[in-house]
Amino acid sequence: MDLDALSGVIAYKHTGETVTTVTAAVDRITINHPLKELCDLELSGQVTFATGRSSMEISLQVVKAPRNDEKPAREDVLITCAFTMVSLDPSTKKPVSISPLQVETTDEKRLFALGEKNYNAKKALSNTTLQKQAPNDLECDLIHAMWLKNLEHYDPDIPHRKPDNIVHMDKSRIHATQIMQPQYRNRHNFMIFGGFLLKQTYELAFCCAASFSHSRPTFLSLDPSTFANPVPVGSVLYLTAVVAYTNPPPATAEFDSNQSSEGHQHGSKVSDSPTEPHYTSVQIRVDSKARNIEHGEAKPTGQFHYTFLVEKDIRVMPRTYPEFMVWVDARRRAERFSASMEGAESADGARHAQDDRKRNRITE
User: Fold this and answer.
1) Cα dist. 9→23, 46, 79, 94, 214 in Å?
2) pTM of this prediction?
3) Could you tell me the mean pLDDT of each successive run of 10 residues in the chain, 364 residues long?
4) What count of other Cβ atoms lies within 10 Å of the Cβ of residue 114?
5) H helix intervals, the chain
């Protein structure tokens, strides 16, 4: 909630008070380093991408509060995230143009280029959804392998039975229902504050991961998420959470051949030793919809994908075709997250190396 509120404050510093600014999407929330001590935290951010249209990208970070105005160290950056804000006309509620961002310094140009890259990537991503792109050959093979495993688990002529660490996807589903109270509305109208919706979906996702693994989950990231429709005050919010993907995956051809390599790619730790703890990356999908009490009309309000790490060897197994599609979509998200983290680490390492060279030149 605090990050969304801060992004709103930053957006109004750029646009002024003559427009209505709303949260359109959360591009990603990532835990860079865990907080292991009690300390003060500093939340900061800035507009990093705005071309003069109605939307802008706000990049935020949470760091350990530095002392004496020092620049925070790399390991002190705890959370990084980005929000997409959209400016609307207060009367018509239609998008309005805002001032473009002027970039001058080298760092500002780098952030603007990164924001432009994220903007183009989101547009390209809309063409790779399962509604527009069918499962590829590898994904079809994985679906078929899991379907065969399901048959083996219940075939009396085959001695194999479903392992205790495999849970069917439909058994992991949990629900929450809540009336939207006026104290959770945003500053402009009787619509619910986006940060409150994120809080509710996160808490349900945490509960889903905990009930699935019977352990305490550790939050890793929130996948890019879009608020599809506003949630009015007085409406009923319905949330549904389900385990969409686990890594390592179930006993498939992919797992049998790539267990070790994929475990490190997607953030889980695979252990061959029975004495070492097993870790599993768990992706939770939360679907939300709001129902108008008077008319009974229900609208989807957003879909959110949270990734947690649990200290347990446990895997989710889809059984129906819709569940297989949920699994494939979540697997694609896990692969994109792995690729983005590897690219970010490479860029961050190169930037720090450049800073070190500059400091060396200065000291020489």
Assistant:
1) 12, 10, 19, 20, 39
2) 0.79
3) 87 88 84 85 90 90 84 86 88 87 89 86 77 88 88 72 87 94 82 88 96 93 86 93 88 43 46 64 95 85 93 92 94 83 57 48 40
4) 17
5) 2-15, 106-125, 137-153, 194-213, 253-265, 321-363
